[in-house]
Predict the structure.
Amino acid sequence: MSETKVFLLPDLGEGLTEAELVNWLVAVGDEIRVDQPIAEVETAKSMVEVPSPYAGTFAVLHGEPGQTLDVGKPLISVTPVGATGADAVAAGRATADDAAVAAETYREEEKAGSGNVLIGYGTPGGHGVARRTRAPKRSVAATVSGASAAEKAADELLLTRTRVPGKLGAVISPLVRRMARDHGVDLGELQGSGASGLIMRRDVEAVIKPAPVLERPAVEPAGPAAPAVSSDIDSRTGLGITGRTAVRGVRKAVAANMSRSRSEIPEATVWVDVDATALVELRAALKKADPHHTPGLLAFIARFVTAGLKKFPELNTRIVTTEDTTGGASQEIVAFDGVNLGFAAQTDRGLMVPSVRNADKLSARELDAEIRRLTAVVREGKATPAELGSGTFTLNNYGVFGVDGSAAIINHPEAGILGVGRIIDKPWVVNGELAVRKVTELTLTFDHRVCDGGTAGGFLRFVADAIENPGSALADM
């Protein structure tokens, strides 16, 4: 019998530990070639097409659309070209037992930096001595040594009773079969809710723990406007629950990053009101002269920010914790030769922070072009992990939401974030006289471990002065 190959979900970049399966691009029984896209998965950072490293016939698809899969766990099983139909069915049984061994092998290769996890991606290193990609048969046997012969026979019987004609077993997961066996559930009587009648864990759980039925009052409220009785009541408030949304994908990543930022970074916030009239007028004059190639206001501010970070480099750093030879932890401030300027962009998938690499070397016009390009890329869900995870400082324009200020949360592990509020007409004293000016608020949140208030205030004042006198500032940049 030809040996079935198990392909594990690889690290898709930046150390991500999971991904959501969006869509299968193939089906069981399809013939595939090496590097052919087999699935679309959504990580916390982007949408990715995963290619197959093997050629052959699909034997098992480990997951269904909407399911979150862990890195290092089985994604597909492929029967090499030339295997018989019986081989493919038998391979479907063996795959579950091989998964634990294959996952362990994957983790070992990750440590060694094999570079062969995913075509087009790879792990750190990518060189060195080749390693076994499959454990010896005795290791596979060891993983099931604890199961009795009776359990194995019962498991095989369940698999046979739930087989779909012309397809693999309707119960693929050994966890589902074990759960059914332990609770006395007859899988042969269940109709699976998965693709092609696949019996899922939720189907067995529904039989084991049926949903509670809430009794209606004996006497219904009178009148045509009587409220409906909710089928799901919150125990704390007594109110009906209208919906439940799983925290996953981008929202899960944002939540984890913000929580980590608040728990690890001792942040402080400073702010200042700025007269942006001169900057608004400068841009208006440039747009009149060249309507199609005028940078946006955010690009000008980005240029001032990168110049400010050169003058106050403490804010363009991050804190790194390392373990010494004695097991103790020590911290160091890591500084960078250049600025990768992140900017917050609202998308249908949530808040994303792409970064303009080497932003300190770009003009305002070049910054504008790159900001527009990256905004389009993240809204299409096609940003790469490098574009989303390489920032050293973040610029957040929340003025587009019609608000004046915000004590923003630092984008961990960076050391600072500058927020820009809306630009509105306000009374302002100019040369001792009251006038109506275009005013905005700048808010800087910074990591107090990397610098003190004097540095933060100096940087904020530098950017504010550049906005108020953009002509002279740009001439010196």
